[in-house]
Amino acid sequence: MRFSLNIDHIATLRNARGEDEPDPIAIALLAEQAGVDGIVVHLREDRRHINERDVRLLRELITTKLDLEMAATEEIIRIACDVGPELATIVPERRQELTTEGGINVIDNIDKLKSAIKDLHNAGIMVSLFIEPHIDQIDAAAEIDADFIEIHTGVFANAVNEEEQFDELDKIRIAVKHAKKLGLGVNAGHGLDYQNIKIFREVPDIDEVSIGHAIIARAVFVGLKEAIHEMIRLIG
Ligand code: PXP
Fold this sequence. Notes:
- The chain is an alpha/beta fold and 236 residues long.
- It has 11 helices and 8 strands.
- It has an 8-stranded parallel β-barrel with strand order 1-2-3-4-5-6-7-8, surrounded by 7 helices.
């Protein structure tokens, strides 16, 4: 299982002072040296953390893989096609939310997503859809030619007891198996941390996990390099 680091929080911290530090580009390069398999950023419509310049600099400087999380809007699709990340992960986006709150409903947005995937494919970019672990959503993702799905792990991460956690894990296992049968790559993310990854890593056939908050929070105590190494050791 590969591991990509989401660095949005570094940009949030930088923007809190309206100055240059901490620099998300420098953090991305340090994270690559520490062994992550890719860098993830979410270019939001309101630019509350990562901005367009960050994305363009990352594209020039990182040597692993750039995963651009994005809403399927005309403006962001145009920027993505111009920048050319290896992967575009389409997420739902609401201005009021603190963070992405759940998967996109592929069935309800099928025409918009089909057209976005076509445009991104024409620019040579692979596309992932961030979805709940539901069979009908996976079928719809395959139907409109997505390359990957990213399974929303927030419900698993926020489960209040073991039973709820294992129920959700079962749903995820079934979803992964189904997606693989349809030839989709499978990533996963949201709310994964140093505790729940010990259970989550047992799910077979996940290509990559995308983790942000837990790593950046841990880095405050032990430094980014150590925080990354600890997670890599857990993922195994
Ligand atoms: N994957 C997606 C699609 C996300 O929107 C986020 C949050 O930005 C993550 C993964 C990472 O979540 P977390 O910060 O909780 O690790």
